[in-house]
Amino acid sequence: MRLLPFALISAAPASRRAIGPAEIVLFGTALPVWSLILGTVGVVMARRVAPASAAGTALGQVGNAALTILLLAIVVAVIVEGEKRPIVALGWAIGLGFSGLGAIEMIARAALAAGRLAIEGVVAAASKGAAMWADRRENGK
Q1: Number of domains composing the chain
Q2: Residue 46: how many CB atoms within 10 A of its CB?
């Protein structure tokens, strides 16, 4: 029986060389190293090539550094939530890094709208309850 060379190659056990750990454990959560590296590089590089805006200029150097750290935290949260593939982490990082302040403003507007809606609901329920209580008190006597 004659074996072809590719059969010998495919039958051989695959040995992979690793450079460092595949995952690190941070606060009890396993995080893939390559996803973290590509996520960090994506945010930092996208922030460098993003077009300047008036809001970004108003933040100053410290504000822009804080924004970059916030965007990195969001990318890490996406990785922790379950997106472990490095290429997807890179895509999220580039998208967030490039949109930057616009993405944070959109999230803030949505959070404020949800907060206002919740407060209006509580106020409406409280005023309705107070009106019912006052009506009972007047009609009960």
Answers
A1: 1
A2: 20
pTM of the shown model? 0.59
* Structural domain range at position 120: 22-135
Residues linked to residue 32 through DSSP beta bridges, in sequence order = 23
Residues 6 or more apart in contact with residue 71 via CB below 8 angstroms: 43, 47, 93, 96, 97, 100, 103, 104
Residue 6 lies in a domain: no
Q: Along the 141 residues of the chain, how does pLDDT read in single tens digits?
A: 555 444 444 444 556 666 766 787 878 878 888 888 888 898 888 888 877 777 777 778 888 888 888 888 888 888 888 777 888 888 888 888 888 777 778 888 899 999 999 999 999 999 998 888 888 888 875
Hey, which residues does 23 pair with through a beta bridge?
A: 32
